[in-house]
Amino acid sequence: MDSNLKNLVNYKEISNLYIDLSQTILKKINFDSSSSDRQNQILYINCFENSLFYLADHIYCVFSKNADEIKNLNFKYKWIELSNFKSIKNIINKEIQSDGLIYDLEALKNQAIQREEIDQLIASSQLNNLKKFKMILDKYKSFEELLRKTLDEC
Fold it and tell me: Do 43 and 3 contact (CB within 8 A), yes or no?
């Protein structure tokens, strides 16, 4: 029981640490198409994914007491697995769908990685900007708060 409680706290703390790191990195992004700026965008997204990864482990431990069952999955598939729990299914399904947090994060990642190809186009409305990065951060905070309130009530 102590190790499960220890992991539960660690997953939660690690998730919070990664989201704090992504907020710090966001302040450094200028959207000036430089290579360092692209690296910061990808680093922001990576920290965000890691936060979702460890938040999923935290939530899974609350329900099953054993995160080893999902430890080999990436962050997206961890959330898909978590959507099988009836008490949080509606919250998670909303974020997995095409207008949800995980979909938006993957789209942002694809745009950041494929930036060079986009730069070669004459015009594109698919460019990453501060608004998109902040929108994902806001979605994450709402999602996390809703999950934690639901867990506290259960």
Answer: no
Give the pTM. 0.83
**Integer CA distances (angstroms), 145 to 3, 138, 151, 152, in order:** 25, 11, 10, 10
Alpha-carbon span 52 to 103, nearest angstrom:
13
How far is 104 from 140, CA to CA, in rounded Å?
11
Nearest to 154 by CA among 100, 66, 89, 57: 89
Contacts (Cβ under 8 Å, ≥6 apart) of 57? 7, 11, 67, 70, 71, 78
Say yes or no to pLDDT of 44 above 80: yes
Residue 4 makes CB contacts below 8 A (sequence gap 6+) with 61, 65, 66
Average pLDDT over residues 5-17: 77
Q: Whole-angstrom Cα distance, residue 153 to residue 99? A: 27
Q: Give the 3-state secondary structure of 86-134.
A: CCCHHHHHHHHCCCCHHHHHHHHHHHHHCHHHHHCCCCCCCCCCHHHHH
CB burial of 48-65 (b: ≥16 within 10 Å; e: otherwise) equals bbbbbbbbbbbbbbbeee
Structure-block tokens of residue 55: 């938040």
